[in-house]
Structure formats: C-alpha cells, structure tokens
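Lab notebook: predicted structure, single chain.

Context: the supervisor wants predicted structures on file for every construct in the current expression panel, including those that have not yet been purified. This is the next one on the list. No modifications to the sequence; it matches the entry in the shared construct table.
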Amino acid sequence: MARLEAHLRDRRAAGHKLLVPYITGGFPGWQDAVRAAAANGADAIEIGIPFSDPVMDGPVIQAASLQALEAGATPVSILDEARTLDVGIPLAVMTYYNTVFHTGHERFAEQLATAGIDGAIVPDLPLEESGPWCKAADAAGIETVMLAAPTAPDDRLPRICERARGFVYSVGLLGVTGERDHLASTAAALAARLKAITDVPVLIGVGVSNAEQAREACTVADGVVQGASVVRRLMEHGPDSVGTYVAEVRLAIDG
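Prediction complete. Output recorded below exactly as produced.
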C-alpha cells in the first residue's frame, strides 16, 4: 500500500473524517493555498492540472483553469512548482486523459513521481480502458483513484473498488463540479453502496459545497473532496481564505 491510501487509512483509524481540498495548479497563489490547506487540517490535496476542455469542471474551476492557462501554466510547469511543496501530506493530481496520453503513460507517471506526487485522478478514463495507464502508474508508485458514478450498476462497483488505489471517488451527482444549495440524495446513496463492498476509503466529491454539507456527507462516507468552494475562495480572497475555510470544514466534520 502506497503513501496516499496508507495515510488516509491511518487518519480514518484514528477517528478522523477525511478532507481533500482541490486547488487549481498554476492559478496565482496556488502553492500558498496548498500550504494553507495543509496547515489547517487537510488530509491530502488534489492539484488540478488545467485543461482546455474540462468535461467534469463547472464554471468556477473552469474560470480558474482559464486564468492559469492564460498565465502560462502547463503540466510541466505545475509539476516543477509542486516539487517545492513540503507540506507533510500526500498530493494527487486531477487531469484529463488527453494530457496523460499526449505525454505517454510511463513518462507521465515518472513525471508525477519525480515531482513528489502520490496519486492521480483521471475522470474521463473509463475503467475498461484504464489498464495501460494503471500499469504504468503502479510501476511508478502512483496511486490511481477511481471514480464511481451514481448510475453505476451493482455489478460494476466491485470492479471499480478492486482497481482503486488511494481512495474511491464517490461522485455525488451527475453533472459538473460546482456549489449547490443542498447535498444531493444520490451522494449518500452511492457512498453507502460503496462502503458496503470495500474497505478502501470512500470520499464523496462533486456538489459538497460548504462545511455543513461536508458534515452531512461524512455521516455515510469516510470523507469529502471539495473543489469549487475552495477555488472560489482562492479566486476571490486569496490563499489565506483557503486555510480559513479548510479549518471550518475540519471542525465541522470532526465535531
């Protein structure tokens, strides 16, 4: 078991719910936001690698990604900057398969490992087509987080969990990322289905919009991934506000 999953399992065993903020790599101040999140209770951090056609990302993350791209961010530059992060918790990247394929499976996996990255989330890579990437990632020590959708049939979920490394990303609702008024009913339902069949940590992401929704999600799941609510604070108020928000969520889910 590699670092990301081992760390999350240890935190869970110690009685904590798991908190993984998403921060757009290459956005001005992103490294300080990562440091602030880590200092205020994040268990791991997901670093987004901006892409020109982000099929899973809603308006907030799309806007942050566009600003990062316009500022000259590339996968290589983001990984170079990630090397300077010494935050004491695991880091994962979220990227689209075009970036992985264009770079080459083995080369991209080695680039992540060299940059001190522990895991990868590739949301548009289906389980059935993930073999070549997962083989290269496993060889480089990179944990590939697998996504499970609310529409997944019961016979598909065990295969997703078997392939998952790090954690299982339980997608809270169909649609793109973004903040919503209420936690979708599908979020708890899918997390419960996953928890019934796997001991790998199960985290709900997409549509977990504030501290109260995170607390609600954690009554079923092992933890949450939060993206739009984190990135919006970074865009509007800067890195320190990310730390303040992460501390608020940490208090809510452990309280």
